[in-house]
Amino acid sequence: MVLQIRDEHRVRTMRLDRPEALNAFNEALYDATARALREAADDPEVAVVLLTGNGRAFSAGTDLLEMHQIATDPDFQRGEFGFVGLVDALADFPKPLVVAVNGIGLGIGCTVLGFADLAYMSSEARLKCPFTSLGVAPEAASSYLLPRLVGRQEAAWVLLSAEWISAAEAQRIGLVRQVCSPDELMATARGDAETLARRPISSLTAVKRTMTEPLRHAIAEARARENAAFAALMGGPANLEALTAFGEGREPDFTGIPGE
User: Residue 36: pLDDT above 80?
Assistant: First the structure.
């Protein structure tokens, strides 16, 4: 099992459950999470979804060891939904999505906040968009959603620098609604999720639809641009150097790569 699911008071809690891998998304976890979001969307007993992680991480993003396999093995068997299917499920999810960042969030563990209706963060958690340090491009419409959330310059720093963002900084720039102590994070996020869940689902979905419908076309266009850039860069010299360095436990060195 890579995803824990629990229902209580019309809130479905989804807990990413690969703690030994810092909840990094492999194909199995992408599939399980995408499938669970689709099922929650269709379940009349679920009003709100609360997404969090098990252990000391929220999510370390895409599993880089599996990413290396995908980049180098043409026979690698992909999952049913994969990364694209998960982002489809997030973009299409019609009910309130509450995210509780309990620990480190890298890559999709950070960019998922662009699809969150409410986000909460442990004071000990940190966020990072590591795309430039991996020699790739942004993902999950983050090139569109993050500037809308935090402004152009703050988003540029997050996406270009590949530096860590503290919980206090995430709240200051508007990535998260509230920072909580680790012991209070889930109680706070669940309390607000249950407040929403007491409202009629028809009204919740109407409010969310009126807020998100104007963005759907721009999100789709941003994803298309990002996917094209990502495909062009994945498996390229900078990306392979980053993945090789990760496997060898060292910092990547892009300075010796022509054009990098």
Answer: yes
Domains of the chain: 3-183 (3.90.226.10)
- For residue 114, pLDDT beyond 90: yes
**Residue 2 contacts residue 9 (beta carbons within 8 Å):** no
Give residue 112's Cα distance to chain centre.
Answer: 3
pLDDT of residue 67: 74
Tokens representing 252 are 């990547």
Tokens coding 36? 């669970």
Classify burial at 35, counting beta carbons within 10 Å of its beta carbon; exposed 0-12, middle 13-18, buried 19 or more: middle
Q: Per DSSP, what are the bridge partners of residue 6? A: 13
Burial 152-164 (b: 16+ CB within 10 A, else e): eebbebbbeeeee
Instruction: Collect all residues with Cβ–Cβ distance below 8 Å to 109 and sequence separation of at least 6.
Output: 23, 53, 57, 58, 59, 60, 61, 101, 127
Q: CA–CA separation, 219 vs 112, rounded Å?
A: 13
Strand partners, 3: 16
Q: What percent of the chain has pLDDT over 90?
A: 89
Listed in sequence order, the residues at least 6 apart from 237 whose beta carbon sits closer than 8 Å to its beta carbon are 135, 257, 258, 260
